[in-house]
Amino acid sequence: MLNVLRLSEVLVILTRMGKDRRHREPRRERKRTLDTLSESPIKVAIATSPQSSATDRRPLDQDTELTKAALLYADEVELVSLGVSMFDELRQVIDAGELGEYGLLASLDDDTINYLATRGGSGNTLPPNWRETLAAGLAMPPEALEAMGIEGADTLRELREAATEHGHRMQQDMANVLDEQGATELVTAIKSGAIKVAELGVSPTSTLRPTDLDPTDGGDVQIWNWIDALVTRLTDKKTRLLFDKQAGGLIQSMLEEGLIASNPQGLRLAAQAALGAGFAERLPAFPTAKMDELLDMRRELALPLARYRGAVSRFSKEMPQVVGEDLDFEVEQLWIETVKPVLLGLEDELADHGLVREIARSLDVQNIRDFGAWTTGTYLAVGSSTSLDALAAGLIASTAGGAATVALEALRAKREGQAGPKANEFYLLYEANRRLS
User: What pLDDT is stored for residue 112 in this prediction?
Assistant: First the structure.
């Protein structure tokens, strides 16, 4: 932290000129926005427990992975995570910008500041209302002091330069910390408004306050805030709660011990979140997906997404009312028994070489492999093209008489038939995996 003694001296100057300064609030016009067309958006709240850094994974890797999976399925995503809340609160204060490091200093309570000053060897304390005085001073150009004949313009310039320098340095340090924690993509999504962070009572003071300053354990308060947030969302009929294994296990134990009331509706909605995000998370190409790609796909594939949500809702009716590892097991079984075979079938049906097979059948070719060899020259000639018309034209030109007409009919039938696979309730997953591959 900056030297508290120097800050105290600056505040004396700022206090003297404070009465001469007239502060005018900028005028803000309120803009009206159109109401959303969706009457009941799908909202998923992701509950993650604090992760140990002892593993080879970064503490917030799991938060990022669950968020990506939820973004493809849900309209609104909220993170109920102590780890994310802690770092995001610090980031917001540091990124506020105008006060630089002073902004973080001003966000701490006086006990913590005085404690840190004492530990740093300074016996000085800050005067009352120093936060307001400091903010007012930093907002005033040094030239204004000189115009009013008040001393301290040079000191104020130094203070503003130091605030800017320290602010930039802290922003970079914070970016490095977020990257080390695995939160870089999360922060980008938070800034864009794609995801929200639940209010858990976390603040810079609660994060930076030394444990020996207060005999009570502030961490316990935050843990209970987190548990209360989970229970609240579990009982919210408009929210689907998505758990990590630890959070799910905790809720399951609380249900079994009667610490929270049984909630069949909440558990069914939790099953929908687990299915909707869990199937997406199991796609082969999903680990390398970027959040902006998933958001684009969600917008572009609105109709397949609606069908997918319908399937998820239907499956959830037959799910046992469990959370934690038991719910993970059920999702895995449905993936193996139902979803994966459907996706493999769609992949086969919609593959480009399916057109060759369809024409071969129409031409009554007995050996598909021979037919493929017979058309190799034509196929290679258009292999770099995305147009199936060129391939079809080459094949048709190689046939004689009425066979060409049959081939054209096969081509039309194939194109019309693709509407069937695209109407499949799991087409969203197929197309997402294809685009991400």
Answer: 78
